[in-house]
Amino acid sequence: MRKPLDLRGALEGVDALDRLYDSLDARLRPEDVVTLVLEALPSLTRRERAVLRDVAEHTRRWHGFSGMSIDYARPVGAARQIAATRFVFGVDGGTVDADDPISVLEFAALVGSEINWDPAHTDFLTDRLNREDRAAAGIELSKRKYNRRFRMLRRLAAKAARLERARKMRGLTVLAAAGFVGAIDRDRFRADPDSACFIAYFTARRKLRREFSLAGRENPFDQVAEVLFARCEARDETDWEMIALACPTWQVLRRLRAEQLGELLGRWSAATRSVAELLASEWRSSEIDKATMIVRRGVDSSSWNALAGAYNAARTGWIACLHASGLTSLVEDAWPGKVMRVMAADLAAWHQTSGGGLHPDTSVWSRLPLPWDVLDGTAACSRADVEAACREHRVDPERSGWTAPRTHTAIARFRPTPELVHGVAVSDPLWAMALRRARVFSGKPLNTGVFGGQDALD
């Protein structure tokens, strides 16, 4: 896993391209990325530089300060649990990477050999050895000491499982926002600065946080992306295969060779099926109303929405590659639909009071078989079925992305990245941090101590 860097500061010995590369795995604001692009591309024309400088000027708002994280939440490693295990067992246990769940489990198995501990059998009630079994195994420990060691290893194994899930969820979050940028190595990125700058900026635009509003997400392709993409188009040696990892659109995919397109198609197909399996498991353990996708308090909506975002992004890339390669006929009879994000009841109520209702896509989703059932052959759903469901609910199947890659006809206009508190735009980052600490807009009880008491809020 890449280590996070202070992406906003001027790092000694680290140039702009390196900082842009590190931003692929983080969440830098688009205007901050533009500042690095201006440094990384000294060959910009006067017109190009003027467009980028207009956007970079917004970096100076609030003296460049923002209360929002410039990274996706990273899993908390198992250093504390490893230290406790070493203390209980009285051993060093060799080298272990506290951030790697496999390494953590290997460490647990190593120290657990002292009590014949099996990582596959960690139930405290059924898998412990009794006195006779301990004696037969040559374990000369009291019941109390044995139980203490067994509990510690059980906790360590559970921590490794949580760490693995957290790493997987973070990876899927990045996949949803930036595609396969994790497959781009630093040398390849640095070898083509124009492509690198476009990828860094375009993915930064895609990573913008969702706002609590009735409007949909903005088109990530704005005037800066247009300038940087045009520079790529003007060069014969542009690494289009690298760009396609982050931006699988027709304008990019049509420039790939057949073998490159086939490899990318395989990547997106595998990702679609992999995330669909995770969604199937989440669906079985959740109480989500398929007809409305409105959830009550207590449902893990964050995990569902992260998986839904990753699935839809993978499915979009897969369908785009199928169209670009002329192979859509191969899946005409098994065409999985999109997956809808869940919506909190308060946002749904706001939609209704504002004269709106459920998004038409929700009705299409409810009408069709579950996508993971289509992918594994459990349910039948053809492209014609999807088109029929779309027509039934007055949805254009192609323009809405159900049967074709979604396209944007207009170039978006850049607007400064808003300071958000649980999706609500706040005018000042310091005020935003106070609201965030007080849990305002979070749906949780207010922490009035941040404001000096309840009277400050009245």
What does this protein structure show overall?
Helix content is 50%, strand content 2%. The chain is mostly helical and 458 residues long. It folds into 4 domains: 1-71 and 179-212, no CATH class; 79-171, no CATH class; 248-392, no CATH class; 419-456, no CATH class. Strands 1-2 form a two-stranded parallel ribbon. The protein has a two-stranded antiparallel sheet with strand order 3-4. α14 (301-325) links the parallel β1 (294-295) and β2 (343-344). α2 runs antiparallel to α9 and α4 packs antiparallel against α7 (143-178). The longest helix is centred in the middle third of the chain and has 36 residues, at 143-178. 33% of the residues are buried. The model is unreliable at 1-13 and 450-458 (pLDDT under 50).
Share of residues in strands:
under 5%
How many individual domains? 4
Overall spatial form: globular
- Biggest sheet, open or closed, and with what strands and sense? 2 strands, parallel
Element string (H = helix, E = strand):
HHHHHHHHHHHHHEHEHHHHEEH
Radius of gyration: 25 Å
Structural category is: mainly alpha
Number of strands: 4
Name the strands of the widest sheet in spatial order.
Answer: 1-2
How much helical structure, as a percent, in the residues?
Answer: 40-55%
Number of helices: 19
End-to-end distance, in Å?
46 Å
State the low-pLDDT regions, or none. 1-13, 450-458
Mean pLDDT: 86
Protein name: DUF2786 domain-containing protein
Organism: Lentzea rhizosphaerae
